Structure formats: structure tokens, C-alpha cells
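Support reply, case 0932

Customer input (verbatim):
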Amino acid sequence: MTTNPRRWWSDPIFLTILAAGLLAVVVQSGDLGSVDTVRRLQTTHSFWTSEPPVLAGDYPDFGLRGRDGRIYAWYGIGQSLLMLPTDIVGTYLERLPIFRDYNGNDPRVRDIFVAYSTNILINVLTALVCLRFLTLLNFSQKQSIAGALALLFCTTHLHYTQNMMENNYILLLTLTGFTFQFDWFRKGNLRSLMIGSAALSLNLLTRLTTGLDLLAVGAFLLFVMWLEHAPLKNWWGKIVAYIKIAGPIYGFFFVLDRFYQYYRFGSFFNTYVSVFATQEKVLHPELSANYPFEVPFRVGFFGALFTPEKSIFLFDPLLVLTIVLSVVLWKRFSPEIRAYLITAFLLLLGYLCFYARYTVWNGDSAWGDRYVSTPVQFVAFISVPLLLRYRTEAGRLLWSVGLAMIAISGAVQIGSLAFWLPLELYQMTTLGHPTCVVCLRFENIAAFTLGKMDAWGLTNSDMTTDPWDYVHITTWNFLPFVLHRVGVVHAWVVRVVLVMWWASVGSLACTLWRLRRTLASPQSEVLS
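Our regenerated output:
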């Protein structure tokens, strides 16, 4: 007896991955979304061209003087390495005769190519790894797919899919570390331990504070053993095996980071923060002796929790749902779920404490507090598969509240895509503080839709002296609308891009509809 193979368009995993890729296509504006990423791409460009790592016009506002008096970017090398292949291809693509008249205009052809290709790759890989991790936590296929979609659609991960900071890359590497090291823990696969350790080590090259993520994964495995009451001899065996494999990998990448530090600033034993503090105090003697960690702890810690400009609960409402579910259903959770939640909450607390005294504890120009986005998303997205698994135990009221929280969170994340993120930052210079940024975003959406931006006092030509910024914040933040607003390319190009964009939107909607139909079929229960 033979069975017919499942068609690809009926495969829930394939449809989930396809949805992740299409989502990344739909939300792109063609711009990198952040001046930080623009500067990291300049560093990327310096790796293989004669261009400097920091443009002359950026210093002294950006960049640090390093060895031989050369100006270097202070960022880690991780995201710059990630963008290297696409930067090379995008540069040669930009030089094609077809783009001769457009070359040099914003958004640049190279930026468009880098943004699309990198964000699609990260989104697809994140969906794959998330599905595998939730499966390892013994969630069903439906619950795992719901969790992956919750991460992509209902957390600030969606915003950073459009605005390409380091955040989503860091989350991908951390989630990969959790997934593969937990796979080793359960199955004894040394290859999985090596992959997980390498992913966490790449994080060290991206942002050194992600050492907290590395520690969190180790703590997660220890919590699992503790909550499952593993014999002490098993503890010792696992710890020794872990150190033998993970230790050298962590050490190798840490040394690479130190060599990059020495290459730029001539020392193996400091970080860019100490170099930055020294040079800034020379330029600005009035700075505090504790700079850049001069902010009172309570300001940064509670600011990330409760200020209307940066509150993690406003920008990631699913956090609230996870907390409520944990309080109500804790005793019903399996040991590995408890271990994960304990680890995720401790990781969030660690990040909040670490950045609380930092001079820009709030992440500066970003949607929400970008410094704590990884642990926030880790805590938030797990709420959806938990709600589905424990629907009966949760009761009708909590189920209804949960669905409402998912809808609110999805609306917040979709709203974050509507305009370029500096819009509200410019508006707050005249509106003042405190300002609920999320509320202001929805006011802007309503005003722009109704043509009332000027009438409601939300925008004017004096908001910024940068003409590109003004053009960018006064249109929908998706590629066809940005191209039309800039008005440089031919009208037929804009029309073609708009048709392709709507086709992508339609394809995403059809994929999600097909995924829903597939998961609702009786066969999906058997095959999951």
C-alpha cells in the first residue's frame, strides 16, 4: 500500500516559511531604516573597497580615532559581515547601465538590494529555527506555527524586519543557540551543540553584551535539569561535555572580537565604550566622570518599563499575556516550559539592569527600547502557543482576553510599519514629553489617511532641515510609495513596483489563508 506524497501547497511548514519570506518582501521601504545600519554598511564597504570605514562628514559626531589616527566605527563587526555578500552584489548591480540615471539617489539601488535580500534571509531562517525550537518544547505543529507567526507578526520583530538594525540578527542567533543546544541536551547530538555554540559566538561579534544571551542558554539547560530532578551524576556529565565542545568555540570567537578591537584601537583589553568615553570627554570636558553610564539606575530601569515613549509593554503587548498566563497556569507548565520562562524573564531583567545606567538607555532613535528587544520578544512570542496548548485550563475569559491581546499586539506592529520611525521623534520636539508614541502613530495614520496632517498640527516643513528626511516621513513607508514620493525614477517604474508590491501583498494573504485552511483540516491533526 502506498500513500500519495503531500503537495507542497498543503504543507504547513512550507506555507509558514513562504509567509515569512513574503512578509519580509511586503514590508520593505528600500531604505536600511536606521543611520546605524547605514554606517555599518559603510564599514562593510570598506572591507573590500578603498572607501574608509567612516565617511569624513560623519566625524566627530560618529566614529572614534584609532590606530594610525584613522577613524573607525565603534560598532561590532557582526552585522557588517552579514551584509558583505549582498553589499558586493548590490554595488555591481548599482553600476549597471539601467541604473545610471538613478545612481546616487535615495533609496540607493545598493541599499534596496541589501535590505530586501538580508531581511528575507533572516525572516525565513528565524521562522525555521522558531518552529524547531517550539517542537523541541513539545508544542504541536499547530501551536508551533502559531508561535512562529506570533514572533514574526505580533512582536517588534516585524518593525525591525522593515528597519534593519542588528536586533533581528541577534534574535536569530540567540534563538539558534537555544534550539541547537537544547537539541543536543535532549538527543546527545554533538553537531547540534557545535552549531548552537557557533551561533551564540557570532553574537559576540555583533554586540559584546550578547554574552548575556550565551549565559542564558547555559542557564536554561541547567534549569531544565533542576526542574526535571536529574541525578547529580547526569549534571556533571552534561556540564563536562558542554564545556569541552562549547568552551573552545566561545573562546575562538571571543579572540576574534579581541583581534578586531586591537586592529581598530590598539588594545586587546578594552571595549569601544571605554575608547568612546575617553575621546568624548576630551571633546566635551563638561561630561560626567561616569559617562557613558551616568544615568540614575531607577531612571533607565523603570523608564524601559513604564515611560510612554519606550515602555516595553506598549510596544510588545504580548508581554502582558505571557505574564498573565505564567501567573495563572504555572503549575500546569511542563519543566522545560518553566525553565524557558524563568530564563527568558531573567534575561530580560539582566538587559534592563545592564542598560539602565547607559547614557541612551532607551535605544535613542528606535521604535521602542531596541537594546532589550531580544529578551522582550523571547518572553512575548511564547504566549501564543501557551494560550493554544492550555486553552481549556485557561477558561473562556482568559482565552478571550488572550485573543484581544494578540489582536492589539498585531495592530501595534502593523502600525509601526506605516511611517519611517523618526516621524514621532521629530514631532516630539514640538509636542513635548511625555508622549505616547504608539498612540501618536495611530493618530498619524488616521491623519495621513484623511489628509489632515497639517490641519492637526502633526507635520510641517520646519520639522527637519534634511530634505530626504522630510520626504521620507511624509509618505507610507513602503518601497513603491517612497519611490513615488521621492519623484526621481520614471512613473512607469513606480507603477511596475506598485503592481509587484500589491502582488506580494495578495500572495501573503493567500498563503496565510491557505495555511489556515490546511491547519483546520482533519489530516493536519494526524500528520502533526
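We compared this against your earlier run and they match. Two observations from our side: The longest strand covers residues 64-65. Strands lie at 64-65, 71-72. Please reopen the case if you see a mismatch on your end.
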